[in-house]
Amino acid sequence: MPWVISFFISWILFFTLVDYKELKRNIFGGIAALILGSIVDWGGQKLNLYQFYDVIIPWAGCSAFYKFGPILVIGILFSQSIPKKLWMQTLNILVFSLLYLFLEALIINVGVAEYVNWHILASFLFNVLTFSTLTYFSQSFLKNNRA
Asked: Given 36, 131, 133, 146, which is the most exposed site by the fewest CB atoms within 10 A?
């Protein structure tokens, strides 16, 4: 049930915060986040770093509700919110990394995921790397193509 709740909350936030005029481009940021998240979570489980439970509809070892909810939505919203100044980009990456870490901690605390050979600080590092990659992807492939 937590997977479904996170799905609906994510889509409520999406419809509240999305820039519909730029959605055609920013959707690719969500797809990139979905691909990265799927690879990392699949690999993390194969390496016995963490485990997911009560998956409902599996997607790369995790719940499809999670992948197509929080992961896809945060990728889209992140892509639309990248500032131009480098120091603001750094702050943006840190804020999104901490917000995602908070979501991960909630998922751990409700018991639908468990760290086996993993630590929350490792997740924070991966979040920073992921949002840095999404920043580069968005600037290089999405923002430069705007008219």
From this structure: 146
DSSP 47: T
Phi/psi at 62 (5° precision): -120, 180
Residue-range domain boundaries for the chain: 2-145
- The answer to whether the CB of 66 falls within 8 A of the CB of 11 is no
**How do residues 36-85 score in pLDDT, each as one tens digit?**
999 999 999 999 999 999 998 999 889 999 999 999 999 999 999 999 99
- C-alpha dist (Å) from residue 105 to 13, 101, 127, 145: 19, 6, 13, 36
Residue 50 phi/psi, 5° resolution?
-155, 170
- Give the integer Cα–Cα distance in Å for 120 and 115: 8
Distance from C-alpha of 118 to C-alpha of 137, rounded to nearest angstrom: 27
Q: What is the rounded CA–CA span in Å between residue 55 and residue 60?
A: 10
Mean residue pLDDT of the chain comes to 92
In the numeric block, the tokens 């479904």 are attached to: 4
Tokens 């100044």 identify what position? 85
